[in-house]
Every structure is written in structure tokens, then in C-alpha cells.
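INSTRUCTION: Work out how this chain folds

Fields: amino acid sequence; protein C-alpha cells

Chain under study, with its fold:
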Amino acid sequence: MTGLKKFITECLALATAAAGFAAEQLPLKLAQSVGQAGFRLVDAKQSGATFRNELSVAAAAENQVLLNGSGVAAGDFDRDGLPDLYFCGLKNDNVLYRNLGDFRFEPAGGEAVSCAGVPSTSSAFADLNGDGHLDLLVGTLGQGVIVLMNDTRGGFSKSTVALPEGDSLAIYSSPMTDIDRDGDLDVYLATYRSTSIRNNPGLKFKLGYANNVQTLESVTDSKTGTQYDNGRFYIRDGEVLEAGTPDYQLLNDGTGKFRVTTLAQFQANSRGDEVVTARNWGLGSIFADFDNDHRDDLYVCNDLDGADYFYRSTANGFDDVISGLNNMTSAFSMGVDVADINNDGLSDFIVVDMMNYSLPERKMQIPHSTPAPGHPSAISEYRRNTLFVGAGGAEFDEIAHYSGLDSSDWSWCPIFMDVDLDGYQDLLVTNGFSYDLENPDVQNDLMKLSIQTGGRGDLVEKTFKIEHSKLDQNLSFRNRGDLTFRDRSADWGFNLDGISHGACLADLDNDGDQDVVLNNFSLYLQGRQLLGESLPRLQQSNPVCTIYENLTSSDRIKVRVRSEAKNTHGIGATLVFIQDSVRQTKQIRAGSRYCSSDSPEVTFAWLADKSSRRLEYRLGSKVAFIEGVKRNSLITFSEDDLAEETPVLKTFDTTLFEEQPVRSSFRHSPNQLNAEHFQPGISRNHFLTEPIVSAAGNDPAVVRISTGGSVQGVSLQDSPAATNRPVRRSRWDLADFTHLTVGRKLMRLELQRQLGRTQQFESRLFVTEDVLSPRAATWAHTLPGNFTCLCVTQLPGQPGTAAVALGGGTRLGHYPLAANTLVLGLRLAKPGERPRILHKLPFKLPVNDMQFADMDGRLGQELVIAPEGGEIAVYQLTGQKAGDITRALGIQSGTGNWNSVACFDFSGNGRNDLLAGNWGDNSSLNRYVRNHYRLYFQKNDESTRLYETFRHNGKNVLMPGLAKFKKHNPIRGLMYRTHNAFKLVGAEDIFETPPEHRTVDTLRTRLFLNDNGAFKPLRLPEAVQFAPTFGIAVEDFDLDGSLDIALCQGFTEFYGDTEPQANNSHLLLINRLATGGSFEVRRNSGIERNNTHPRVISSGDFDGDNRPDLIIPSYGAGVRHYKNITPGEGIKLQLTGDSLKLIGLKARLRYRDGSQGPLYEYTPKYGYRKEAANHFIFGIRAPVEAIEIIGLGELPVVPGQVAYTLPQLDKKTGQP
């Protein structure tokens, strides 16, 4: 399909008749200003809220599921204007506290609310029967769901909802929304097993085989003889795992009576589109509008083995859209919360896991390797927090490392709230666990105790030690407004040590801000007699609930809903407060916190420096709004305020690309070398054979791509001339290649390497005289070391001699040591002659990419180098000298792991700018770089040992834990008996004289604009930093007269904690510099994201329509071809003749008004393992007069003619 392709969709606009809604707006009663953000811990004895949630060690040992704790709910059950509190207990009875004001509480509600003898986990206030009074829904462990209906007289009536296999279920969240859209509130139940036997050492499994598949025949407890249902377990990768439980839905009939069903039973989709809910370990879950279509979607956190659930609500029911999260979730997902953290109108959300926040304490966790990338559609689970930010179109980018929220300790309940009322939502997290089962020292201690007592190697009363507890601090993070967060726990007074599970928000003193309530937990050992003495009961931590008063004094507004409809409190409603360009968005929810539920109201910051103040209230297809919202006011919406929105038609931007079939079969087959085998501790494979792609040549229908050991011609069209290209196969791997036109021949230079007899790489420069001839002569020139990449230019003053730059590579097992980067002289008339070394650069860092380009605006080209563990460098090459002119140009890139470079005239001023691809801040290395990361390396004859460190209390502390250190340093590792003894060991402690080291101080991909020879940084869109940048293609993709950027991002082969980070593997940046802007991300580009693992991208006009298309070969897979379908067409200048004469040629458009377009320089090798096409495609922004060919003359542009060929120009007249 060609030409313009439009997508027209219905969207909603506010009805003009909606103006003048009469929502109630009353002043708030603010407490005396204290002048700072933060919390005051309310004394429990003075408040009267003394609820305790505690459990004996003996009870916990019998059922460790109890250690998941329970929650708290807030809501005004007696309608006196103050939110009340309901706490759930496991062994303690539940307690309902009536709010008396001034942070004083008293028990209320009668006997029914106590749920005596019922281990209660979750609770939520909601009006279940539409009578305007809040009822209570209580989840239990093994006893179903308890419904407490408000009798409107201060008491409650109790009933139970029976669930299938209810005695085997524990309920840890009960989010509510109108699932079936009949106006009342329905419930989703995220369930967990009420008891788990996965840690029972007495289980015996009888295995069998059927149809060549391993089967489970029986499960028996060898101690008790108990037989278990086989369906409780399953086999995966040879390991027997315990299955979880199914989740359920409660569909409300409007009176508070429920029909039990499942999501799969709720809707009947066509075959292949069914919603399938597995038996899993559900914890926190939430109903929220993730895709901003005013329907509540569903996210469910699943602990242990098995990915989370993510369901999008549509007009026909729910669709499984977990793949829209880049096929990744947290592994031990506990809790989830949703908010618009950057005020862009799109929903973002966090899922918390249990990775330690402190970098030294992170070493005290059993290491877990990052899952290797499998099929692109497979879900990968990462043992850390995940933070997903909305990218539009129901797509998300995962940015936890970038934001600083990748870890928050053993976390349960995340809460987004604007603590300091600056307009951005901050984050609170509850933490802690009763015994630190991730701590290797604790595990070793338990194992020893188990051997001594003949018992189990986990939580046992007689071997319980307080020091085995994981008493974490609760944490709070301030939102800095740029998608990054910083720890403010101590400053804000939210840093309680202990174990906190459920938490909720409520304005307990009616001053408009949100206070915080926690349900804390503790184990205890019963008092006992020892040698005639009575020992008191030993408490693990403080089990008394916590109430925090919010002290923030900034202006605010509070919003709530009171309606006569069945959904009396507006659950699911979206509120948007707009002040000039600031758009704060919040949603009223019930039951959507871990075991807990907020009071149904929201608070917004009222920003004094803004003028316009508009509040919007949306529920389903209806909307209401208020203009001129007053500061410090309470706003109450009702059903009467709502009006139907008026549908309007809106035309969205068309896509730029459309995928086309590739006519030739192609598959990249990389080598299988495991770099970690040769050098333990290396983070990723530095010896990849990429699918190098070349768009050079005279046949636009054919691109040449490396399969790994050969170069294959891949046909993009049905042209007969494009078939039967000769393919040379070799036992050598291809590291890089390029082509040079010499007369009528197409010469290829290949940088090859192979693993030699000494277990080291041998490199050679392999020259093919003419790849178009099956009988062409070839020559192989041995190289003095390992090299990674090459690029070519004409040697100044020596026509016919190519200057071939070879980027130094590291020896196998000796990263980061590298060979010197070389520049060779190769006579093209005699390619069989051994190239002579022209320059041996004083540059011994591993080089990932290079480009020859004119960087100083003078004659000739400079060599730009992208190293790993160093700074971007620019060398000026003359006949006898190679000079480093980086500082003279003002380029200060910082020390990074640079992957690629692209030098082009992005600003349109006739000078080349510099784009350098780096790892990006969304890397597990980010926290360490902010803490002065170092890589020490110690070379011996066999290998080079690596020691990564970070700065802590003045020491360069080793990053890996003791287990990994012992694996790579078995003798030294014997010095440390425990992991804790090794925790703070630094490089200074293991070396008398610390060895050589390298640092990294930036991970950001950076753009430097050339301002008349001085390079100045320009900030790129933050999405660029969400993944490591490798491939770069530069063209005017939208043909508007400015050069745009296409990026290929993501790691391919990696080890240990390094992650693939394929957030948006194909990112398109549209240049808006000419109109006073910067670069903007084009989201609807038409390029499919995250389908494969690509790192190489190339561009060119592959179908002859004068538009730049894209080719993206994937590592270990095939190739994708994207046709440019931008309206209109550009002006193409085909470059013909010998390549050495063309390299460095510059051209630009001259417009009739005298202005000029950006300068194009022919530099075929740039942007990571690819060769550019030998033509320019100029976008057009105004009527064109001529094509200026710098230094030679110009070509007049004829109206109606869009394709030109570079002619021979008269040097005197500058004319053809």
C-alpha cells in the first residue's frame, strides 16, 4: 500500500452546553502553617487508635502465608464528615475506629465488624447497595469474603460470599469498579493460596513420562502420609512448582448481593481472543484507566513464578494486553499504584518487588540472574520494581532504573501522592518481612540449625532469631518533575523501621491534604521459663498501627463525589485539575491498594503562580467542569452536574512508514561464543557478529547484509536483476565491512576475525576486488590485534589511496584492555599490496563505532571515535601526524560507554553536529554511576580480572556479593566467613596497591550542536535515555527540510544484572530546531516496536520514490523493510563515480528566497555497523532554486524534476 494513509477515530470533546455546572465549592479549614512538607507521627495512646497486628512465631511457622500481612481501609461510614478507619487482623480481631476529630479515635461498629476468629487480610469501604452509606468488604485467609452492610444506625450486618475452594484462598486485594456497566460496584478478587506447602521438605514427588513429556504421578507428605492433588503442582524446566489459585469476580446485583464468576466466564470472546486466567499467586491489584479511554482497566500483581495480569477494558469486555508492557513484569510483584507522574495526561504505574534499596545491602540478597531473552513474545520477569510510563496508544516504557525507583526494599504497598503539593505525585512505600529469606547469611544459619535439630530449614519457633528479621524502613521519594525521584524519607519523617503491609490515604482532619495510615505487623515469641526465671514475651517489631498527619502547608483543593446514582461516591471517576499548562490527573478508587483502600476523595496542589484554574470530572461517557476554582476549597460533584459528552471527529497524524514484505529469505546466524566463559564477571558479550547492512550500490532493490560469516544480497523488490547474487561463505566472522566503487568494480573491504589456536582472536582485512563478479580476485591482510569496526576516507594528497581506520578491540578474556586504533593506507589500484600503518593512535580503549566527517569546517575529514569507558574523541589526520582536537572543538562528552556516532547538520547552519549513542540512564548501572562507579582490572597471563565498585562512606566498595566474588576469586573469597563480613569490603581492602581502573560518569545519549566550530550540548527527549542506543540512521524522514533521527536500541547478549532494555527498539526523532523547538518523539511512526532484538538500522530510497525508507536486520533473526509513505517526495541527488572522490562531498539546497537547507556530507560509514546509500534525499520546505555542490558549483532545479545525478562539473565555471 502506498500514498497517504489516514486513520480517523472518534474522540470525545467537552460539550459546550456543559458550562455553568453548579458543583458545591466550600472553604477548607487549614491547620496553622508549619512551612515544610512532611509528616508527624501521631502518638497511638493519645489518638486512641492502638490496633495491633501480631502473630506468634509458632502460628507463622505453621502457615507462612500469614506473613503477607493485612491492610486498612478509610471511609466515612457514619457520614459525620470525618473519615473513619478499619484495620484487619490475622490473629487479632478487626477494629473499626470512629474518627472524633483532632486525630482522636474510638472503637465503633459493634460485634459484627470484629470478625472474631477470622484471619482477615484485606478491606475496603464502598457503598455496595447505593443507599449513600459506606459498607465494608473484608477479604480473609481461607474463609471467603465477608460483607458488612451498613445499617445506617452506626452498626453493620454480616454475611459471607462463598467462593469455589474458598478454604484454599487468601484474598489480598479487592479493587472495585462497574465491571458489567450496570451502574453499581463490582469486585475483582486477587487470590493467593491460604496455605503453601512449597517449603515442606517432606514432600515426595513421583514422576513419569507420557508422550515424551515429564508428568507428575503423585505427591505425598512422607511424614504425615497426606496425599495432595496433582493439580496443585506443575513441572517446568524439570522443576516441580506449586501452582497458585484462580482469581474471581463478584458481580453486584445492585443490593450488595454478588454472583461469583471469573474473568474468562464473564465474557465470550472469539476463539483465539479468550481471556485466560491461570492459577497464580495474586497480591495487589488495581482498577484504573490505564489507556485514558474512561474505562477502568485491570492490573494484577502475581508473586512467585508466573507473570502479572494486565487486562484492558473495551466495549466488548477485557483484552489481555500484557505484551504492551514490552513483555516484562516484576518477578515477585507485591503491590501496584497508578498515577500521572509527569502531568502529560497519560497514566503511569509502578509495581513493587523486593530488591534492597541500599547498594551495600543489595549485596546481602541471594543473586538472581536476569532472564535471557527468548521469543520476543515471551514475558520476562525482573526481580526489581518496574515503573511504566505512558507512551500513548496504550503503550508504555519501563523506566525504573532511569527514575531511581528500581528498588525500595521488601515492598508491599506503593502509594502515589503529592506530599509537598508542588503538582507532582511523589511515592510512599511500605516495607519489611518477618524473616529475611533472601539473605544468604540467614539461609546458611537456618540450614545449620536445621541440621542440628533435624527440622526444617526455614521459620521454626525453637530456632527463631530476631536478627533473622528484615525490618526495613518505609521509604518516601520526591518527584522532581522530570520522571526522576529522590529519597526524602528522613526529611519527610516517613522512615519507620519495622514491618508495614497495607496502607491508605485519608484526610483525617479535613484540612484538604491526605494523611497516611499503616497497618504494621510483628511476630512474637511467647514468654517462657528459663532456669526458674520468667522471660517476657519477645516482640520482633512494633505491631501497633501508625497514623501520620500531613504537615504540608501549601495551597490545595479537595474533590469528592456525592451522587444519588448507585455509584454514590464516584468510584472510577477521573478528576483533572488544569492550571495553565499544568494538568494534574487523579482517580477516585476503592480497594485498589495492597490489602487496603483509600477514603474516596482526592487532593490537588493549587499552584499560586498559575492563572487559569479549571476542574474536570469524568465518569464513563459523562463530564462536568468548574472554571475559576478557588484555593483551599472543598469541591463536591453530584450526579446532576454530569452531562453527556459530544462525540467529534478528529484526524490524527498519519504514520510515516508501512512495513513491506522482504522478497529474499534471510536469517542472521551469530557466533555462539560465550564471553563470560573466557572472562568471568563481564557484563555482556563484546564479540558479537552483528547483521551489518549496506545500502550502497547501484541497485536500490538490493541491500547487502552480513549473516555472520558471509554477506548476502537481500532483494526488497521483485526485480529479476536482484536475484542470484553471489554469496561467499567463510569460516571467519564478519566484524564490519564497507564498499568502494573503483571504476566499474564494486570493491569490498571486510574486517574479519576468528578464534585461533591460542584461544585468541586473529583479525584480517579481506579485500574482494569486485563483489559483482563471481571470479573476482581476493586478498587477505593480517592485522596486529583484534579490531571491531572500520571506516574509510580518501588519504589527503594521495589520490587513489584509501585511509582505512580500524577501531581497536579487546582481546578475548582481557576486557577492557584494547588494541590501539589504527589508520592504514590501502592503494586501491594494488589492493594486494600490504596496507601500511599511517597512524597508530594513542587510544587504547575498546572502540564501538567511528565516522570520518568534517568537524572543523575546513578541508578534509576528521576521525570521530566512540569508545567504551572513555570520552568521544576527534582526531585530525595529516600525512605525518594524528592530532586530538576534541577539546579545541569544545566537545566534552563525559566518560561513557559510547556505542555509536553520527555527524550531520541537524541545526541547518552548514556545520556537522555530533550525535553520540550511549547506554542511557535506564540501566542497572545508573545508581552505581551516580555513586562514582569504577571498573578495576587486573591483568595476568591468562585473563584480566574485573572488579566493579561504587563509593560508600569514602570507600570503593565491591559491587558483587560474596557468592559471585568467591566464584571468580576462590582463594581470596576464603577470607570472608559471612556475606555480611564482605558487605563493605572495598578495592582498598583486597589490593595493597589498587590496580588500574576506569570510570563512567555519564550514560546519556548526547547531541552536540556545532556553533561555528564550538560544540554545545542540546538535551534530547527523555525517551532516548530509556534504552541503550546503538544503530543510528539520519535522513529527512518527513521531508520538511530538516534532518531527523531513527534509533535502534537495546542489548542483545548480556550476562548477570545487565538487562536487554528494549523499551522502544525503534525510536524516531523528528527535528523541530528550525521552528525554535528541539527533537520530538514520533510515536505513530508505523515502525513496530519491541518485536525483535535489533541494534542495526539503515536507510535509503529502496523503491525509487525519492523518500528515505528503513531496513532493520535483527540479531539472530530476519530483516524488516519499512517503506516511507510520507506525502510528497524529496529531491534526490544520486552520487556516481569512484567512491574515494565522493567521500566527503557536500551538498545542500538553495531556496529561491536565498536561504539554504542543511548540509549533507557523503560519509558512508556511521551509526553502528552499517553503510549508507550513495545518494542524498533532500526534504523541501520552500521553492528550490538549485542544489549547491560545495566547492564544485551547483545544479539548477527544474520544476517537476525530482531526481538528479551528480555530473562532472567544470571547476572554473561550476556548471555541468
About this structure: Residues 440-453 form the longest helix (14 residues). The chain is about 5% helix and 40% strand. The radius of gyration is 33 Å. Confidence is low (pLDDT under 50) at residues 1-21, 721-726.
